[in-house]
Amino acid sequence: MGASSAVNAVMFVRDLAIVSTFYRQVLGVAVLRGDEYHAVLDCSGFELMIHQIPPHLMPVVASGEPVQRRERGAVRLDFAVKDLTHARSEARRLGGQIDERPPPWAPAGMNFFLAQDPEGNVFGVCA
C-alpha cells in the first residue's frame, strides 16, 4: 500500500476485474495503480486495494450458485457517495445492490444503507 495514505484496506476477491470496476463505478473513485493481481482505489484519502485471490487458494464454488451476502465479517467498510440514486443504479447494473431502506439499527435521518458487491461482500453507503 502507498505511504501517502493514512488508512488502507485490502479486499481479497475471486474476480479482480469485476469487483474493482464495481467499486470504481459505484463510488466514483479513481484507480491509483494496479496490475493483473491488484488495483488500488483512491477513496478520498483512504486507499482500498482490491486483490485477486491466487488460483491455487480460490475456494470452489458450484457453477450457477447464487451469491450469498456475507454479513458476518469482522470488518465492514462504509463509504460516502455523492449521488445515492446513481450509486444504486450502478450497483444494480454491475451485479451488486444498495438496499432501499436503512437497516433497523441505523440512527434516524442518517441516510445510511447496507450494500453488497458482486461477490457478496457487505459494505455501507452514506449519502
CATH class placement = Alpha Beta
What is the structural class?
alpha/beta
Helix content: 10-25%
- Low-confidence parts: none
Which of globular, elongated, flat, extended, rod-shaped describes the shape? globular
Q: How many domains would you count in the coordinates?
A: 1
> Based on DSSP secondary structure assignment, what is the total number of beta strands?
8
Give the strand line-up of the largest sheet. 1-4-3-2
Instruction: Quickly count the helices.
Output: 2
Listing every helix as H and every strand as E from the N terminus to the C terminus, the arrangement reads EHEEEEHEEE
CA(first)-CA(last) distance: 27 Å
Main beta sheet, described? Answer: 4 strands, mixed
**What is the percentage of strand-forming residues?**
25-35%
CATH names the topology as 2,3-Dihydroxybiphenyl 1,2-Dioxygenase, domain 1
User: Architecture in CATH?
Assistant: Roll
What do we call the CATH homologous superfamily? 2,3-Dihydroxybiphenyl 1,2-Dioxygenase, domain 1
**Rg (CA only):** 15 Å
Kindly report the average pLDDT value.
90
